[in-house]
Design brief:
By secondary structure, the chain is α+β, with helices and mostly antiparallel strands. It has one domain (about 5-55). The chain has helices at about 25-40, 50-55; strands at about 5, 10, 20-25, 45. It has a two-stranded antiparallel ribbon. The longest helix has 13 residues, at about 25-40. The model is unreliable at about 1-5 (pLDDT under 50).
Length: about 55
């Protein structure tokens, strides 16, 4: 099973959970959104720059 490293965990291929790439420059807003999305069962890849988002894709 392959996986991608994220700033806050891993996104696992074949996982039953949906994955979201969250790109947000405001660290407080990003952490807030990440918390609620994780509580709803999503895997999150959190990035703060456009370059980081392109790497994750």
């Amino acid at each position: 099973m392959s996986s991608r490293s994220t700033h806050h965990g891993e996104l696992r291929a074949g996982s039953q959970r949906s994955a979201i790439l969250l790109a947000e420059q405001d660290r407080f807003a990003a952490n807030f959104a990440e918390y609620f999305l994780r509580t709803e069962g999503y895997d999150i890849a959190l990035v703060v720059t456009e370059e980081e988002a392109r790497v994750e894709l």
